[in-house]
């Protein structure tokens, strides 16, 4: 539960009379229910547009009670339903429009490509596609796919077939190929992705070893956020490097 500004126990809603709070005060209020939350996490959610605290003329964040409650909503949806930020934003936007969207249970899975929630126990398997489906999605032939696999750009799942992410990878590799970038040029990107994945794995390892099952489950959501930040950083670095070369 969230603490009220006077230090008593509340039910997730701060009093309307409470004065705006600093990010440090917000962190203290959230820590009881969300022990893993950090200032960096709050700033990240703000950068993603999920919360919009006011700013003082000097640039300091000031959180109203409604900001704290919204922040708690976001954290609960990540913790209890393992939802990506895009889905959380859509849910909160629907609530703001007066709709009553239904959140999935923790065992549900959402296919973001078509917006359908899958509740089948074998959803993880259903999310994989076969080789012919991947060829059709990427619009390439067998020889080209085999070449991508030889360079480690496309990797089959251990259980067979290909994960949904491989469809995205295949399409991007095909698009880059139209600009003359061959698989051998992209090996460095694959190696970099593997290193970043290893770093993320190290960072979430303490969460995965936690005794609390919810904390262990939260490791996946944390890993997804770290991946999003890593992608944004990579894009910013590439754009910055190009700008310095082209101007």
UniProtKB/TrEMBL annotation:
Residues 37-94 form the HTH merR-type domain. One of its GO terms (molecular function) is DNA-binding transcription factor activity. Transmembrane segments: none annotated. The keyword Ligase does not apply. It holds the Pfam family MerR_1. The keyword DNA-binding applies. InterPro entries: DNA-bd_dom_put_sf, MerR-type_HTH_dom, MerR_fam. Keywords: DNA-binding. This is MerR family transcriptional regulator.
């Amino acid at each position: 539960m969230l603490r009220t500004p006077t230090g008593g126990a509340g039910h997730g809603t701060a009093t309307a009379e409470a004065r705006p709070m600093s990010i440090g005060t917000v962190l203290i209020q959230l820590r009881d229910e969300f022990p893993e939350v950090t200032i960096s996490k709050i700033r990240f959610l703000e950068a993603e547009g999920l919360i919009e605290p006011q700013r003082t003329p000097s640039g300091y964040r000031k959180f109203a009670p409604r900001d704290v409650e919204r922040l708690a909503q976001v954290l609960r949806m990540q913790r209890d339903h393992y939802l990506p930020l895009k889905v959380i934003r859509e849910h909160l936007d629907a609530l703001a429009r007066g709709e009553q969207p239904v959140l999935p249970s923790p065992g549900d899975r959402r296919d973001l490509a078509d917006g359908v929630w899958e509740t089948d126990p074998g959803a993880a398997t259903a999310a994989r596609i076969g080789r012919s489906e991947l060829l059709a999605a990427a619009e390439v032939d067998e020889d080209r796919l085999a070449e991508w696999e030889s360079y480690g750009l496309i990797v089959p799942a251990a259980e067979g077939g290909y994960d949904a992410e491989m469809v995205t990878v295949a399409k991007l590799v095909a698009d880059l190929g139209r600009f003359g970038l061959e698989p051998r040029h992209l090996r460095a990107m694959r190696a970099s992705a593997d290193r970043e994945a290893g770093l993320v794995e190290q960072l979430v390892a303490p969460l995965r070893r936690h005794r609390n099952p919810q904390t262990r489950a939260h490791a996946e959501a944390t890993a997804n956020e770290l991946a999003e930040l890593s992608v944004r950083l990579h894009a910013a670095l590439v754009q910055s490097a190009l700008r310095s070369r082209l101007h």
